[in-house]
Amino acid sequence: MTAGASTAALLAAAPAWCVAVLALALDWALGEPRRWHPLVGFGNCAQALEHWLRVPAGADGPQSAASGSLRGVAAASLAVAPPVALCALLCRVPFLGPALSVAVLYAVVGHRSLCDHARAVREALDRGDLTEGRRRVGLMVSRDTADMSAARVAGAAAESVLENGNDALFGALFWFFVAGAPGALLYRLVNTLDAMWGYRTPCYLYFGWAAARLDDLLNLIPARLTAASYALTGSLRTALRCWRAQGVRWESPNAGPVMAAGAGALGLKLGGGAFYHGAWRERPALGEGREPAAIDITRAVRLVQRSLLVWIAVAGVGALLDA
Predict the structure, then answer these.
(1) How deeply is 93 buried, as exposed, middle or buried, from its count of CB atoms within 10 A (0-12, 13-18, 19+)?
(2) Could you tell me if 224 and 252 are in contact, meaning their C-beta atoms sit under 8 angstroms apart?
């Protein structure tokens, strides 16, 4: 048997745990594709659908809520259903299915990318280059960064690492273990649409409703598992206390528990008000302890990485018990 045939046979018999480990190893070794990233292509298709289906705010008068919501449902369905259905079909093909599962999971997780973005912010702050730190953290968050202090830059980066630990890593892993590659793909595509359309602005309040609510539903369990992972691998009591007291106050029902538990696990004060699109928005405080510094960006990354080891270990035990 040739080496290629042996690899194909191994993948054909590989449990989900092996596929996940291979995909995570590829992500860490290669990072995100620099050209022809599938999620970038998906985003371009979603923009085309938005241009076709979204009516400008106020253009359809009294029916704006119903019309906008229906158009948003149609756009989300047309964007997500075809690639997920195709993935589900191809994953049933012998030999091709396991290899495709590795490729899909590699494409939808973003562990290496998250670490790279966080490291760039940390390095800029360590050099004392606040301007570059603001620019770099602006690639991670949607808030205005032009007037941020060094502490706020560090805090924003740490918050992004904690939140995206769920969105770009643990959420996809959860749905992969539940529903295979189609589940992971569904999760990541919906998460991408939520990032594009899930804003409470006149343009997207109704059109983005379907994507935002579906993202909330898909994150209901993985977000809480992520919060529990942060608590287990950090300061347990503080994380649980902050999760219980602060998580429900956050605007997002899933980001709140994740970020509150993560901030508590790190012993940091995060959250608080911030500028978004030129307007100040009050946000609840997260965590407790000291103000964030550049080193806490790395501490947040390590918290995510320790949590990932817990997920891999638990999934490995589950695979052994099922064998």
Answers:
(1) exposed
(2) no
Instruction: Tell the residue number behind the tokens 């609840």, with chain if given.
Output: 284
pTM of the prediction?
Answer: 0.91
Report CA 74 to chain centroid distance, whole Å.
Answer: 23
CA max distance for the chain: 68
Instruction: Residue 43: count other Cβ atoms within 10 Å of its Cβ.
Output: 17
Report the amino acid identity of residue 312.
I
User: Would you put residue 35 in left (φ > 0), alpha (ψ -120 to 50) or beta?
Assistant: beta
Alpha-carbon separation of residue 66 from 71, 74, 81, 270 (angstroms): 9, 12, 22, 37
In this structure, the number of other CB atoms found within 10 A of the CB of residue 74 comes to 15
Average pLDDT over residues 117-130: 98
Q: Is the pLDDT of residue 2 over 70?
A: no
pLDDT of residue 6: 54
Name which of 182, 42, 40 is nearest 101 in CA terms: 182
Q: According to the model, what pLDDT value does residue 57 have?
A: 58
User: Which tokens go with 323?
Assistant: 């064998």
What type of residue sits at position 291?
E
* Angstrom distances, CA of residue 238 to CA of 119, 210, 211, 232: 26, 35, 33, 11
Q: For position 215, what pLDDT does the model report?
A: 97
**Phi and psi torsions of 58, nearest 5°:** 85, -10
Helices 130-138 and 111-126, packing angle to 10 deg: 160
Query: In the structure encoding, which two tokens stand for residue 315, read together?
Result: 């999934």
Task: Give the DSSP per-residue string, 152-181.
Answer: HHHHHHHHHHHHHHIIIIIHHHHHHHHHHH
**In the beta sheet, which residues pair with residue 286?**
270
* Residue 150 pLDDT: 96
Report which of 24, 259, 57 is spatially closest to residue 163, judged by C-alpha positions.
Answer: 259
